[in-house]
Design goal:
Elements (H helix, E strand, L loop, with lengths): L1 H15 L4 E6 L10 E6 L2 E6 L1 H8 L4 H10 L2 H4 L5 E6 L6 H15 L3 E16 L7 E2 L6 E5 L2 E2 L14 H11 L6 E3 L7 E7 L14 H9 L1 E17 L8
Parallel strand pairs: 5-9, 7-10
Antiparallel strand pairs: 1-4, 2-3, 3-4, 5-11, 6-10, 7-8
């Protein structure tokens, strides 16, 4: 009886980590400019229509440097912008994003026979700390939460960060890691809690902003936010692809 109960609990736990029904097929439009439908679980449904590597970067919650390495090592069919995959699934309503990611991981491991492992080595990082001057970011309130201007143009909502009145220091560190040209990981060591609003303007390179009216992002963080990115060495986790196969299409 006890063995049956344990088996039942294991089965329920496994089912909680999987989609109930899945559909995997190549996207037929073939439009090179197609931007896709970003993966998410909403109201009992999961939908993702993007180049496969983008959906997988989301599912495994990769850091910017992991995502760069991951895409470079993926087969051509999984990198193609015009050859997106359409993934559809159903699940219970109210699934959190973290659980949704876990279920998407199971889908890739089951349907794409995807295998990977993580390796952590010491490498170059930035430590984000308060600079000697006063912090130039204010706690979030009901006023507009942030403004990002790159090469003279104000940008759209920050990729990977929920649309709201501000960001946490961890979110800001991840965004800076994705924005700095060499994608160096950024470790939040500010000790600051809560959500902050901010305004920043920087240049992203000579090819895009010849007059360099604004500083580079590392300098802008210090001058405009009151934070400092100091070079250091720390643990850098690498996402290593072991194998992946084209799935059999189903409707």
């Amino acid at each position: 009886m006890q063995l049956l109960a344990v088996s039942l609990l294991l089965a329920l736990s496994a089912s909680a980590q999987t989609f109930e029904v899945t559909s995997v097929k190549p996207f037929k439009r073939g439009d090179p400019g197609f931007q896709g439908i970003q993966p998410a679980c909403n109201g009992g449904h999961f939908t993702a229509v993007t180049p496969l590597f983008l959906t997988m970067e989301w599912a495994y919650d990769m850091s910017p440097n992991q995502a760069d390495e991951f895409r470079a090592k993926m087969p051509e069919w999984a990198q193609s912008i015009s050859g997106a995959y359409e993934l559809q699934a159903t699940t219970q309503p109210g699934v959190t994003e973290d659980k949704c990611r876990k279920m998407a991981q199971h889908l890739f491991e089951d349907r794409f026979h995807f295998k990977y492992h993580l390796e952590t080595v010491m490498g170059r990082v930035y430590e984000m700390v308060p600079s000697r001057g006063a912090l130039k970011m204010q706690p979030a309130d009901d006023s507009p939460g942030w403004s990002v201007t790159i090469n003279g143009r104000e940008g759209q909502p920050l990729p990977g960060i929920p649309v709201r009145k501000g960001v946490t220091m961890d979110e800001l560190a991840n965004w800076i890691a994705a924005t700095n040209p060499d994608r160096t990981p950024v470790i939040n060591k500010t000790g600051l809690q809560g959500v902050y609003k901010f305004k920043i303007a920087f240049s992203a390179g000579a090819g895009l902003n010849r007059d360099f009216a604004d500083p580079d992002v590392v300098t802008a963080v210090q001058q405009q936010l009151g934070l400092k990115l100091q070079k250091s060495r720390g643990p850098v986790q690498h996402f290593i692809v072991d194998s992946i196969e084209k799935p059999e299409e189903n409707r």
